[in-house]
Each structure stands twice: as structure tokens, then as C-alpha cells.
Amino acid sequence: MTVNEAPAGATARLAQFVHDARFADLPPSTRRAARRALVNIVGCCLSGAKHEIVDITARALLPLAGVPTASLLGRTERTDALTATMLNCLASAAYSFDDTHAETILHPSSATATALLALSEQRPITGEAFLVALVLGIDVASRVSKSVCVPPAVGDIGWSQTGIAAGIGAAAAAAKVLDLDPQRIAGAIGIASLQASGFRASHGTMAATLIFGHAAHTGLRAALLAQQGLGAPPESLVAKYGYASLYATAPHIPHLTDSLGNHFEVESLGYKPYPCGIVIHPSLDAALAWFQEHGTSADSIKSVGLRTHSSALALGFRRHPETELEAKVSLYHWVAAALAYGRAGIPEGKQAAIDDPAVVRLRGLIEVQTDEALTPDAAELTVTLRDGQQHTMSTTHSKGSMANPMSDDDLTEKFKGQAELVLAAPRAAELLERCWKVDQLSDAAEIARAARASL
Q1: Do 222 and 297 fall into the same domain?
Q2: pLDDT reported for residue 455
Q3: Alpha carbon distance 81, 87 (integer Å)
Q4: Last residue of one domain, picked from the residues 372, 395, 418
Q5: Which residues 6+ apart lie within 8 Å of 91 measured at CB?
Q6: Nearest Cα to Cα of residue 153 among 104, 198, 200
Q7: Is the model's pTM score more than 0.85?
Q8: Which residues pair with 106 in a beta bridge?
């Protein structure tokens, strides 16, 4: 694939690349990675479809919505495309079970996929076109995020990378399937970048999930506005007082276009085996390994020492979460629950587990030491029992990381477990097959329609 080398800035180069990309340009490994991303995120949409956050937002917005032309995955309602995009994206993030870009802790697939699913019910989109746009949206979002947070860029950990980057990727993907010209694709990127927002102080609240829905909504809206000719700064990402200069202390602009077309960021996504913040997963692996090898009554544990990368404590610092939303990002809670139950699924993040005296006691015993010599996907756990026995378990590469990825079979089982919360098993199996074979579909809207719950 060639990139237009005419004099232009990074925003224009990205827009031209999005315009020119074709299915034939995608290597087989990229196509496979995109199918994996779709299977994972559709499953996440289904498992979160009836979450309290989605119900609240639906009650607020559906009475004001437009013509019902788009499906809500895992629910019976239909609504307008913009509202469907927001609600479906909210659902995908409700249990923090979505994908993670390895370098940035960005969750890029949800905003792009939900925008494309809503658009697929408004206009014909082939499965190949859908897959190309999904790849491009993830690529743009990840590159934008890298430009403001991956060294040598210097950014602020307080920004939610999903909030400030995922909507830009969704805008690029939507602009692609709307068949916009390069100038209007750049306009869509610009309009979305003007609306980028979200900070990590929201963690532990419903508003943290709203960040995802907002990103998807603004991305699709940006593309629709650009389609009609709404103008935006042509170099919004790199202009003076533009995106990169405001979201980073020292941005690194080459991240936007380095290896463009030669490496696709969808191949840099990790998938979560546990429904909580990705930075917690290495410690969870160690705790679960301890339970499997040495597990005994939680009462027998005297102390727990944990050595981990600083990012785990920076984002998972809540020792005693009071709500399920706070528990999603509590390093202490998930390690304690894993030590107590030997499991780390959706039930272990529920209120019953949060309030369990055994889990509460274990949370209080955990002492965390941060060590920058460890990588973000490594951890070391030492459990000391009342009888003096001591066991140390280490995680070098957590399950779901780039070095220890979930297999296709793992993703299939994860999908089934999520989908069957809202769909009968035969329908879940049919939907799963469509996702795995998306590029063979003549009409990508088959996925959105198959994901609706029966009345």
C-alpha cells in the first residue's frame, strides 16, 4: 500500500490513507486480528446490554430519540443510529471486559465497531468494507493515542486515552464507509478531535463508562457532519493549539504516520480474560495460580505481599471499593477475590463479593510494592499462611497480553459466556459464526440484526 506523499501534514496523510485503503491491502494477519477484535467486542456489548448504566442512559435518551433504524445489541429496542452507537458502546464497557491497546491502555475497538454496526443498518456495507473500516478506525485511534502518551511523547496519565482518542478512530472508520473524500475525512477527524474528552478521576463512577459512549457518539456524528460539509481545521491533530499540543506536554508526531500501511495497530490489541482494569491482570494471574496450586481457606492466610508495576497501583489504588464500579478498578479487590474464590469473572465483581467478610479481610492484608524493573504485564505475589508456610507465584506475561495472547478458542468461549446472558445458545452460536466470518458477509448488518434480543 502506498501513502500519498504530496506535501501535507500528518492529519492529511492519515485521511488520505483511510481513503485509499482497500481490503486487498490488508495482510492475512491483520484480517485475522480484526475478526478477533470484532468477536471480542460484540460479546462485550451483549454482556453489558442490561447493565444498570445502559438502562439508565436508555431511560434518559430513548424517549427523545429519532427514527428507530438501528439495533441495540442484546436488547429488544431499536433507536436512531447515534443513540444506538452510544448505548451499544456503553454496554461494551460496562464490565471492563473490552480489548486494550498494549502500548497506550487505550480501548479502541468499541467506539469504532459500534459506530460501524449502527451505520450498517442505514446503508449497504459489505463484510469486507466493514472489516477494512474497523481496521482503520482502530489504527487511527491507536496512532493518535500513541502520539500523546507513548515515549518519547510525554503525556498526563490523568487523561483517559479512550476518551481522547477512540472517537477520532470512530470518525475515520465512519467516514470510510460513508465514502468521503480525503478532505472530508480530515474534517471528520478534526470535528471528533475537537470533542475529545475524559479523565481518569471518573474511574469508579458511571461517568467512566459514559466516556466510551460519548467517544462513539461523537465519532459517528463527526463523520455525518463532515459528510454534509461542516468544516474543521485541516490539520487538527498537529496544528498550533491543536490536539497533540494540548493533550501532551511533549507530543511525538511521527507516531501518527510511522509504518503507516505496513503495521496495523489492530495486531497490537490484547484481550481480557478478566472483567477489570488491564493493569490488574498480572496480579490476578499470580493469585489464581496460587489458589490452583496451594488454595486453602481464606482464613488461613496471614499476609499477602504483591510486587507490581507502578501503573497497577496508580489506576487500581482503591483498597476497599464500596460499589461494583469502584471494584472494576481495584487492584486489592480482585487479588483478594481471586485468593478467596479461585475465580475472577463477572460474579467476583458483584456487590456480594465486594461485601464478603473474607474478601474484605484479605483486601486489608495486601501490601503492594511497586517496582519499575517489572513490565506492566508482570507481577509477583507472596502469600504467607498462619502456619508459617510461604508461597511465591510470579507472572512474567499476563494472560491476554501480547506475549501470552488469548487464543481464538479462548475468545470463542468468552463470547459464548457473554452472549448467552441475553441470547439463546443457538442464536449466540449463529451470531458468533457471523462475526468470525464477517468479511464473507454480503451485508454486515446481519451482525447487528442477529445480536438483537427476542421480545
Answers
A1: no
A2: 66
A3: 10
A4: 395
A5: 44, 45, 46, 47, 48, 49, 51, 54, 73, 74
A6: 104
A7: yes
A8: 101
